[in-house]
Amino acid sequence: MMASLNALVAVCLAYVFLLFCVAFAAERAGVQGRAGWLLRSPLVYTLSLSIYCTAWTFYGAVGYAARSGFEYVTIYLGPSLVIVGWWWIVRRLVRIGRSHKVTSIADLISSRYGKSNGLAIVVTVMAVIGVTPYIALQLQSVTASLSLFAAAEQGSLSDAEEARAAGFWIAVGLALFTVLFGTRHLNVNERQHGVVIAVAVEAVVKLIALLAVGVFVVWGIAGGVSETLARIDASDLGTWEMDGSRWAGLTFVSAAAFLCLPRMFQVMVVENDDERHLQIASWAFPLYLMLMSLFVVPIAVIGLDLLPADANPDFFVLSLPLSQGQEGLAMLSFLGGFSSATSMVIVATLALSTMVSNHVVMPVFLYLQQGGATQSGDVRNVVILSRRLSILAIIALGYIYYQFSGGSSALAAIGLISFAGVAQFLPAMLGGIFWRGATRAGALVGLGVGFTVWVYTMLLPSFGPDVALSAAIFDQGLFGTGWLRPQALFGIPGLDPTVHAIFWSLLLNAVSFALVSLMTFPHPLERLQGAQFVNIFEHSGQTRGWQASVAESEDLMIMAQRILGAGEAQRLFQAEADAQGQGGFLPEPTADFLQRLERELAGSVGGATAHAMISQIVGGTAVSVQDLLAVADESAQMLEYSSQLEAKSAELSKTAAQLRDANAKLMQLSDQKDAFLSQISHELRTPMTSIRAFSEILRDTDGLGALEKTKYANIIHVEAIRLTRLLDDLLDLSVLENGQVTLNQQSGSLVDLLDHAIATAEVSEARPISFKRRRLEETVTLHTDLDRLSQVFINLITNAQKYCSAETPELRIEVSRAGETVVVDFIDNGAGIPVASRDVMFEKFSRIGAEDGNGAGLGLAICREIMARLGGDVRYLDGTGGTAFRVTLPQSQALAAQ
Amino acid sequence: MAPRGSPLFLERGSYRQRRVMDAVRLVVFLGAGLWMIPLLWPAQGAPAEQAVPMSRALMYVFGVWTVLIVTSFYLAYRLRGMPDDPDDSEAP
Description:
heterodimer, A: 898 residues, 3-stranded antiparallel beta sheet, 35 helices, 5% strand, rod-shaped, B: 92 residues, mainly alpha
């Protein structure tokens, strides 16, 4: 009966060969640009998501259902919710992944937290630890199903050893496939068409297989839907017996794992071609999951009914058709399980190897090669080699784990442990894309705490008492501390162990992540990346900058060729040079170009490594954002300094303006002085000329009559008087202007003062003028220098007498009190003073009209000076119909006459 | 808050599109809520006559699943002509 097992192996090999062919054809089509409609269709995208359904779900779900009833469905509910709610998280992840050329979940987390390679290594190691058992599980399920076939054929398990050997060859085959089709393109963002199509084909095969078994069970064995439901209700699983915490907890952890599993991240984010595929997947993928889980309970119930009690429920999908003699169906079912296992191993290995190669191997290689990025030699080969070695290493690790664990425990347990392990990435990932305040330190601490708790409460206890952890620790806790019991942390027992581990690990993870993030301060690069990740939909552009000189273009070119390949690199540089409008192949290394280049490189070797490589070349040292910020700081200081200079120069120019003003004033004063001197010499010269001329006549002319002598002597006398008066006035003005005048304060009545002034004026000037006064209003007692005030009054009255042009001159003197002050107006009925002259009439030597040569034009100037000394004012009064002056006296000097 | 340059109110077509986007955001809460309803069912150890039969539980969970799939399909159908980058603005 060995032939049958051999036939199975033959079918298996044929199937694998078919897959190779499909992958090869797809790869060829992708290279030639054909069949894009299929390779890039949303259908293929959705089907590739189905690697979520591994052998664990294909075989294990039925076993799970047979043991725990309806609980298995939670493993599908979580992912369904995530993809139905694609708008919230998956869309954001895909956008970030596409715009930052993210290569893996480790790359995403490390890029978000400042391209920290340390963080990437932590995530990679955690992912490897979490996923390796899962890979072992797939190998185990394939070999177990093989041995089941062997047992069914031979009635014994004698060929189990042979099946185990088959496990080795399966591992080798998977490694070969992954190496062949998973590393064709260095750039992870380019789809590995062969792998994707093969995964899609396998997705269809496993769905059809499970549906076929289901249909056979429901309609072939049970005899219809209602009969099946009746049998279900009648069975041991007949009622809803669900622990609520497990229902919610498992739904949650499966949703988290769906987002965080490296292989899911690979197909969902990294290999996503078009964001709109998510719209299709949002309903198609839940549909796929629903179909995958639809017949699980019927198969479990019927299996429990028909199969012997010692049959492993994990393989009901296989053993049920076998027991019914349906060899073909069993074969299909086997292929379904085989597909589930292989597609998962291929993609998971691909994802993990990318992480290991980009974040562990390449940094070490670059470090050992100190400054070697510009040396000759193709790094591409190194990258690809390191990725292939990583693939082999991971599959080998899975195989070794499988050999040592011996395929003992139920499949579902390992699956859940793995889920909870990778779910530890969730806080750091979601925090990174939604919260700008999340920091690298927070992510590291959160991951560390979560992972430690997971290992202690879930991974180690899963091996059972006295294997990894002693029974004493189970009972009394670590170091005999009661609150450190691995399945009852903090002394809270009674929780389901799985829910307990998930709850505490994720809670402590999230809390420590948030707390440390709140307390630490991120590096500038972290903050920039954080802002870009969180605000991915507002601006997808990069803001950080590189600086490089043209000479470095060549080095960049050499490096890019080594990683992207010569053709690709030349195309990139040429395009950029064209875009910059330059001839030749080497573009200016602008910040934009360097960013683009870094992203291209990141697609091949991961963000952190690409960053390190560029920084190696650009300026020989890293032009980190820290440096840029330091430069910015410096320029801010310079800005401040220059603004200080600016302020100083503004001050200087203000001072200069003031000096200019002062100078102008001085010039003006000097001009005034010159004008004054020339004026005064002219004023003095006129009378002096008359005096000299007439005195010469008197001296030299003989025979002058007495009358003539008297006349000439009289002229000399008058001129001498005028000269004296002029000199008196000048002296007076000089004294007043210099402020040397001493005021002779007296008290007196305004009436008396005016009477005196009018009398004096009438004596000195012959022209008659009539006065209009209201004596009653003039009864004001003044306390001031009365002599000086009377001088002002006399001057004003004399002016009126002299210059009033009216036929019958008339001067009104009006006294009024305006608040605090006493106002005396002198208003005549003359022609008034022209507007142009009003400005200058109080200046020295200003005379209005030239009809009278008698005055020197000092009178009003003296009046103004006197009034200024007395604390009052004299001004021209507009709008009276004649010439009018207003003398204002402060109240303090005007005491009401009582 | 509406970002700079985006209108405060939208014409009918765009308005409907925004509401479809809102619905896309909300379906997941509907699904989570409906699927957590089994938490309210009689728990383990309840009297046999109160226990929910497995067949009814099956039909409920798969029924919700179908509703979610149909809703998502309808919404995806409504969203199909959406521009590539409908920013996250909340303009109503």
